[in-house]
Here is the input.
Amino acid sequence: MIGKHIEAIRQALNLQSSEEKPAKKKSEELDFLPAYLEIMERPPSNVARLFVFSIMLLCVIALTWSILGKVDIIASSPGQLVIGGGSKTIQAPENGEITAILVRDGQIVKKGDALIRLNPIQAQAEILRLRQQIGHSGLEVARLTALVSDDPENSFNPPQGADPERVKLAYAYMMGEYREAQAKLLTFKAQLSENEAKRETTERVIANTASLLSNVQERFERFSKLAEKGNYPKLQLLELEKEMLEQKRELEEQQSSLKQLEGEARTLKAQMGQSHAEWRRSLLTRLDEERRSLIDYEQELVKAMEIGRLQIILAPTDGRVQELSVHTIGGVVTPGQELMKVVPEEADLEAEIKVLNKDAGHVIAGQSVEVKVDSFPYTKYGTIKGEVLHKSNDATKDEDLGDVFFSRVKMSQLFINVEGKQVPLTAGMRVTAEIKTGERRVIDFLLDPLKEYASEALSPR
Here is the structure.
């Protein structure tokens, strides 16, 4: 059954192919046909068909390239050429006046050679002042130490090398202060002696008064018994009683005076001890202060002598003088001011660049770099290949670029070919480093704005 159907289809196709096709009309005949028939009968232009196919092919090629093709991701970082490792920066140690500049830019120096001489007068005056202060403090320490001892006159031991006139003055001052303290003690002792004499007198008066009172009391008791029997006059008995009462009052007054004198003696002893203790405490306090001052002066003298030594600035290593920044005799330098650099002969130039904050996370050591020197347009003189050596971990604030990370780039050559000549590069030239941080598909550049827009559109307000 199925075979019959297949045979019928084959015969129909053979019949159709054997029929005579209508003859194609000429272009002139088509021009006289109505518009809709002309469109149906006229074949499409080969040029238009080729143009459309070309456009479609180009779109397919562009889409394929955007998907498969990749381009480099470049981080552009400005910077300048600097001396590489091994260079020594020469700085001014203190404020000073330049009296001699002993080198010139580009001069070769040896380690220990004098570079710049500063005016030493200020440093010498400071050393002299500190030595005088040390001598004065040393004498004060010796004087106060002797005063604290039990025998100041024989305990005074001035420092070696002290000025004899100052020693005599310090000794006289010490003895004067010691005698003044002893005079105060003698005043208290004199008052105590006077008090003791008064107490002894009072004690004798008390003893005599007590003896008289005992005698009067004994007579009063005897005569009272006689008076009771009428054998003694009443009036004389009353006189005797009066005498007895007066003796008692006298005894009580003397005893009160004795207690007062004893209290005064205790007070005088306490005042004498307190005065002596305060004097010793004052001596110990001053002695401690002078010792501290002496230590401070000695430390300052060491510093001043070091500054005096640095008034002649010496080369720290062998090398060539570069970036000499002072040229005026009599000019003033400030502490930490950079005066020059001494660069070893084998030291190379490096590019110190500022990596922007947005690129810092992608820049690592070992990445390839294209260095463009601003003094030589790269479109004419080309670029210099390099490699990232390292990147700092801490950001630095830049007025124009914001937060930046300093990095160093090692360059493959230190010259630029200009008309067949090699022009050497020098420190300070401005450069732009283009760091290859990775690769990216071309289509990502087109899709990223759409992704960003979609992400923001889907985020809740």
User: Anything to note?
Assistant: The radius of gyration is 58 Å. DSSP finds ten helices and 17 strands in the chain. The longest strand covers residues 70-83.
